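Record type: monomer structure entry
Structure origin: computed from sequence
Chain ID: A
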Amino acid sequence: MSSVSEGRFPRSSVPSITGAPRRTTLLTGDGVRVEAVYTPCAAGSDEGGGDGSGGTAIVLAHGFTGSADRPAVVRAAGVFAQRAAVITFSFRGHGKSGGRSTVGDREVLDLAAAVAWARSLGHRRIITVGFSMGGSVVLRHAALYTAPDSGEFAGQDQRAPGAERVGGRTSAHEGRTGAHTDVVVAVSAPARWYYRGTAPMRRLHWVVTRPAGRLVGRYGFRTRIHREDWNPVPLSPVEAVPLITAPLLIVHGDRDPYFPVDHPRMLAGAADGRAELWLEHGMGHAENAADEDLLTRIADWTESA
């Protein structure tokens, strides 16, 4: 649920690398190896967590067919690193990560591993920012991984269909071991699964569901896609939103060719007044359409959230 072709994106005046990046391989809860990159805060202050001793870290979750090394992701990381340490990673089946993409289901475990790594480096405040498929993942992750003092783990709430499972692996204990987020930003995220109302989404469904499409995904877009259908169907983004206790920002372009504006409005409506909605005039889809001004405004919002 992102651009199947990266296409053109705004250039940034901010250096793409603002410190010595640290690369590592994370192991998810279901045993998938995920590549990740840590970039210190350019300011190098404790508030920014530049030395890992505290402060804020922003974890970026890319869209479908993206990766930690894609120019649009590197550019976004460079902008955010002016305010905080940044972790980027490649979802399973993308970039140098192992496994196969499940298009938003088990990817929650990839994000959880990245957030847990940020906390292991000493960062006390974690912000998750997701684009498109990554936007759906940050919403589901925030619902399913809660802070230890926030009450019952959402994964055990039988009132939320699918909330008790993340790829069949998540337990209440996993939600309480430092993988929770403190602030959530979803950019160009879908509200519901199986949406085929636009031509780009019909093409994406062909890539994901058909053998020939998966070959195109693998060799044309360097994305390895799982052959099996979801079973069970995971908690949808709009079902996840009411379970989120962290501050939530929903950002969407009014010229998004993948998901029309009823998607962000549905997400905001599910939050019942507890989320902020930005409908960006003239903006297209996901990280490729997020210019430096928007990324800076998002960073400003997260500082005051």
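Annotation 1: Residues 22-304 form a domain with the Rossmann fold fold (CATH 3.40.50.1820).
Annotation 2: The chain has one domain: 22-304.
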